[in-house]
Amino acid sequence: MTADPNSLPAPAASPARRGAAEASGVDIAPLAGHIGFLLRLAQQRIFDEFHRRFGALGLTPGRYAVLAVLAANPDIRQVAIANALQIKPPNMAVLVAAMEADGLLQRRLDASNRRANMLRLTEKGAALYAGVAGEIRAMEEEFAARFFPDGRDSLVAALSRILDA
Questions:
Q1: Closest Cα partner for 99 from 81, 72, 111?
Q2: For residue 163, which phi and psi values (nearest 5 degrees)?
Q3: What predicted TM-score, i.e. pTM, was given to this entire model?
Q4: Could you give the C-alpha distances from 83 to 41, 79, 88, 98, 112, in angstroms and in order?
Q5: Residue 160 confidence class, pLDDT cut points 50, 70, 90
Q6: Which neighbouring-strand residues pair with 108?
Q7: Domain HTH marR-type spans what residues (predicted)?
Q8: How are the residues of the chain apportioned to helix, strand and coil, as percentages rounded to the nearest 5?
Q9: How far apart are the C-alpha atoms of 64 and 19, rounded to whole Å?
Q10: Distance CA 69, CA 92 (A)
Q11: How far is CA 88 from CA 76, 92, 93, in A?
Q12: What is the structure's pLDDT at 22?
């Protein structure tokens, strides 16, 4: 089989990734040039750091996303958040129940549709969000600076172009 002259060379695996792959005896070289695979690994690396920094607060990326959306959209339907964040309704129900039990949000029945829940941050949830939002943005800046000399804005713009396609 001949090489495709239009294909780009695969990026070299990072030392950490090479080490993990070598230790496991798994050759991941066929995936090294796949955007989706690399995005997933990058997401996992960022989530690992997120858990390291914010796990003691009971915060996960999913919980943070719900807090952020509720801070910007008080009294929003649960299903609207699930749709916006692309969280399956059963998973969203579990997430909301746990966050309600932890006192981070409150839900009430929607007066116009008694089958729907309206969500709002509690004082505790709003304080948690306000206390970590800046730190999370700073963490993202650290990661973005590794990828783009212009930092986070360039990375966000590039990822947004993928989502808009």
A1: 81
A2: -70, -30
A3: 0.78
A4: 24, 6, 8, 19, 19
A5: confident
A6: 118
A7: 32-164
A8: 65, 10, 25
A9: 31
A10: 13
A11: 17, 6, 9
A12: 59
In one letter, which amino acid is 8? L
The helix/strand/coil state of 5 is: coil
Provide the residue type at 6 as one letter: N
Q: What is the pLDDT of residue 74?
A: 94
Q: Residue 22 corresponds to which tokens in the numbers above?
A: 């070598």
CB neighbours of residue 59 within 10 Å: 20
For the chain, domains (ranges, CATH) are 34-164 (1.10.10.10)
- Which residues lie across from 121 on neighbouring strands? 105
Ordered DSSP codes for the chain: -PPPTTSPPPPPPPHHHHHHHHHHT---GGGTT-HHHHHHHHHHHHHHHHHHHHGGGT--HHHHHHHHHHHHSSSEEHHHHHHHHT--HHHHHHHHHHHHHTTSEEEEEETTEEEEEEEEE-HHHHHHHHHHHHHHHHHHHHHHHHH-TT-HHHHHHHHHHHHH-
Cα–Cα nearest to 96, from 110, 82, 114, 112: 82
Cα–Cα dist 77/115, whole Å: 10
- C-alpha distances (whole Å) from 109 to each of 75, 112, 115, 137 are 10, 9, 7, 33
